[in-house]
């Protein structure tokens, strides 16, 4: 059974139709590349899944049950996490503090409880080891590489036993070595049975790590294919409109 189903999802902002009648399903342990030019509707679609926007029309189903989200917090409660392009990290805090930001562990009894830094360092360290990342829990984020920062952002998603992780341009503006590190992090999530939706303009990254590719143009889905049955040339044609639809 599909983890998430989108059925005839549309979103309009006044007269602007950002997403138009899009349907697809996501299955556990699958990496799905979401591609399209700027303004194709990718970000709006992902924000509906993440609870930032409510669809104007259509239905979302999670594990077979109808899913209605009013805010991102509700999406996280259902196991849907998003890693934003800017990562939303606090540079002056440690990796562990960022992983637990807003979900800090405490010990003691209210009002005499204090932050349990040791427990947070230990759990964050376990997460980074599970991800096979060199990131260290006590290091400050401002001293980290782009790949290590991605590991911190992904580590946050693993606190809540995420079912779906939405990743917005995770390999933009980082070095080739760091790109390889981030793609390995995505594979680690997939191997844990998590659905990863990878929004990217980088064709080699999508074809390296994704199982499927969904292409959007002008708010509509124009392709949903297994990576093995497509090619970078075909996807480029679909994005630009040289190929209408497959």
Textual characterization of the structure:
The strands form 3 sheets. A 6-stranded mixed sheet has the order 6-9-10-3-11-12, sandwiched between helices. Strands 2-1-4-5 form a 4-stranded antiparallel sheet, covered by helices on one side. A two-stranded antiparallel sheet has the order 7-8. It has helices at residues 42-49, 72-77, 95-99, 117-130, 146-157, 176-191, 203-209, 232-240; strands at 4-13, 16-26, 31-35, 57-62, 65-66, 80-83, 106-107, 114-115, 164-168, 195-199, 212-217, 220-226. With 246 residues, the chain is of the alpha/beta class. It is 31% helix and 26% strand. The chain has 8 helices and 12 strands. The protein has a single domain, classed as P-loop containing nucleotide triphosphate hydrolases (Rossmann fold), CATH 3.40.50. One of its GO terms (molecular function) is ATP hydrolysis activity. This is Sugar ABC transporter ATP-binding protein. It comes from Rhizobium leguminosarum bv. viciae.
Radius of gyration: 19 Å
Total count of helical runs of at least 4 residues: 8
CATH superfamily: P-loop containing nucleotide triphosphate hydrolases
Q: Tally of extended strands?
A: 12
Intertermini distance: 25 Å
Number of domains: 1
Oligomeric state of the chains present here: single chain
CATH class: Alpha Beta
Biggest sheet descriptor: 6 strands, mixed
In percent terms, what proportion of residues is strand? 25-35%
Shape: globular
Organism: Rhizobium leguminosarum bv. viciae
Keywords: ATP-binding, Nucleotide-binding
InterPro entries: AAA+_ATPase, ABC_carbohydrate_import_ATPase, ABC_transporter-like_ATP-bd, ABC_transporter-like_CS, P-loop_NTPase
Protein name: Sugar ABC transporter ATP-binding protein
């Amino acid at each position: 059974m599909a983890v998430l189903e989108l059925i005839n999802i549309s979103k309009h902002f006044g007269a602007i139709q950002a997403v138009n009648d899009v349907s697809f399903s996501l299955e556990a342990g699958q990496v799905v590349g979401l591609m399209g030019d700027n303004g194709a509707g990718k970000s709006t679609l992902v924000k509906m899944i993440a609870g930032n926007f409510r669809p104007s029309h259509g239905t979302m189903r999670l594990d077979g049950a109808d899913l209605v989200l009013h805010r991102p917090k509700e999406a996280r409660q259902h196991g849907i996490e998003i890693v934003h392009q800017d990562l939303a990290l606090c540079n002056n805090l440690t990796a562990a503090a960022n992983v637990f930001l807003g979900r800090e562990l405490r010990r003691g009894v209210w009002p005499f409880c204090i932050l349990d830094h040791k427990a947070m360092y230990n759990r964050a360290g376990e997460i980074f080891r599970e991800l096979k990342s060199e990131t260290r829990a006590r290091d400050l984020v401002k001293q980290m590489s782009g790949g290590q920062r991605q590991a911190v952002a992904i580590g946050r998603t693993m606190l809540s036993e995420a079912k779906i992780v939405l990743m917005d341009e995770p390999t933009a503006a980082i070095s080739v070595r760091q790109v390889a590190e981030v793609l390995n992090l995505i594979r680690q999530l997939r191997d844990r049975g998590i659905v990863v939706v990878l929004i990217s303009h980088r064709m080699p990254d999508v074809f390296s790590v994704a199982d499927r590719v969904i292409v959007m143009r002008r708010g509509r889905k124009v392709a949903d294919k297994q990576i093995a049955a497509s090619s970078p040339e075909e996807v480029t044609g679909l994005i630009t409109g040289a190929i209408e639809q497959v």
